[in-house]
Amino acid sequence: MREPLFLHSGGAVSLHRMRNPLVTVVTPSFNQGHFIRATIESVLSQDYSRIEYIVMDGGSKDETAQVVREYASRLKFVSERDRGQSDAINKGFQMAKGEVVSWLNSDDTILPGAISHAVRAFEANPAAGAVYGEGYLLDYDGNVTGRFPVTEPFNLWKLVHLSDYILQQTVYFRRAVLEEIGWVDQKLHYVMDWDLLIRIGKRYELVYIPEYMGCLREYGTAKTFAGGATRVAEIGEVLRRETGDWLPPGYVVYGLDAYSKIWYEAIDEFTPGILRGASEKFKTFLARSIAQVIGGRIHASQGWFSDGWATTQAHFMLPPGSGELMLRGSLPEWASWLRGQSIRVDCDGRTVGELALPVGDFDISIPIKARRTGGALRLTVLASRYFVPNQVQENAADGRRLSYLLKSFGWR
C-alpha cells in the first residue's frame, strides 16, 4: 500500500489541535428495526467516554421505536417525517453538540475502538478536516464476508475523478469544517457521502487511519446495491460538476458496472433456449471487454498505479497551500532504461519545476507559490523516459509505460 500523500491545509476555518472532544454519532433510520439494535450496540459499546448519540427516525412503522426505547437513557431519539436520509443526517448534525460528528446508517455498525482511533487521528493531525479508516463487508445476518476492498491512503485526484474508495462507515468529520463548506447535499440520494468528501478534500486534509473501524452491510435491497441506473446518473452529476469533464473516468467505471448487470439480464430474458449456449459465450466476452476497459484504461487514467509506478504523465490534486512540494520515490538501479530521467511539474498549467532524477531513492522539494484559498491545485508530472516491461523483460506480461516509482507527493 502506498504511503499517504502529505498535505497542507489551506481552508478558511482556523483548525486547532483537539483534546478529548465530544463526538456526536447520528443514525438516520427508517423501517430498519431488524438491524438497528446491532447498530446502536456498536456505538454505545465504544471505549471512548465522550459520545453523544442521536437516532433520527423518519417515522418508522416497524419495531424501530420499540428497540430504541430500550436505550432511551443513553441516546436521543427523534421520530418525525423527513425528506429522506440526507435531510435526517443534516437535522442530526445541526442539533449535534460534538466537535467531531459522523453518521452511521441503521443497518451498519462500527467496530470496537473506532471512535478512539478517530479522536487520536484528529489530535495528531490538527489540519485534518475528516479522518477515515479500514472496514469490513457484512452479509444480511451480520457475518463478515471480507475487507472493504478499495480503501487506500488519501488521493484527492482519484477521489474527485475516479473512485469513492473511502468507506463512509469509518468517516468522522470536524463539525466546524462542515459548517464552512456546507452540510450533506439533500438533493443527493446515493452519493451524498462521496460528494461531501470531495468538497472537504478540495480544501482540507483527509487523514487515513490504518485501523479497522466500520462495517457495511450488503444485501439485495440495500440502497447502495439497488440503485442501478439512477445511482449511476447521480454519480455522473456529481463528478461532472467537480471535474468539469463530460465523461469523467469514475462515471464510466460505475456506469459499466451497473449497466453490465442490466445487459446480462436482458440477454437472458430475450435469448431463446436454443441459443442459450451462444448467449453465455457472448456474456463472457462482454464481461472480459468491460474488465479490460475498466482495469486497463480507466484505472490507469491518473498515471500513478497502485504498485507505486508512475507513467510519463501523472495527475494529482492538492488542497490550496504554499511552500515546498515534496516528491519521494526511487529510480531502481536495475531499470537501466530510465537512466537520465528528468521530470517537469506543472501546476494549474504553469511549469513550477524541472529536474533530473537520481538513480536510487530520491526525496525532492520544489518551492512553489500557490493559493492558500480557493479551489484545489491541479498538478501534472511529466517524465522524459519510460520502459515497457513486456518489451524489455522475458516472460513479462506488463504492458504499461513505467517512468519512476513514487511513494508520496504533496506539501511538506
Short description:
The protein has 412 residues and is an alpha+beta fold. It is built from twelve helices and 17 strands. Strands 1, 2, 3, 4, 5, 6, 7, 8 and 9 form a nine-stranded mixed beta sheet that branches. A four-stranded antiparallel beta sheet has the order 10-17-12-15, with no helix packed on it. Strands 11-16-13-14 form a four-stranded antiparallel beta sheet.
Ordered list of secondary-structure elements with their pairings:
Blueprint (H helix, E strand, L loop, with lengths): L22 E7 L3 H12 L6 E7 L6 H6 L6 E4 L5 H11 L4 E4 L5 E2 L3 H11 L3 E11 L5 E4 L8 H6 L10 E3 H7 L10 H10 L3 E13 L5 H4 L1 H16 L5 H22 L5 H23 L10 E2 L2 E6 L4 E9 L10 E6 L2 E7 L3 E9 L8 E7 L5 H4 L11 E8 L1
Parallel strand pairs: 1-2, 1-4, 2-3, 6-9
Antiparallel strand pairs: 4-8, 5-9, 6-7, 6-8, 10-17, 11-16, 12-15, 12-17, 13-14, 13-16
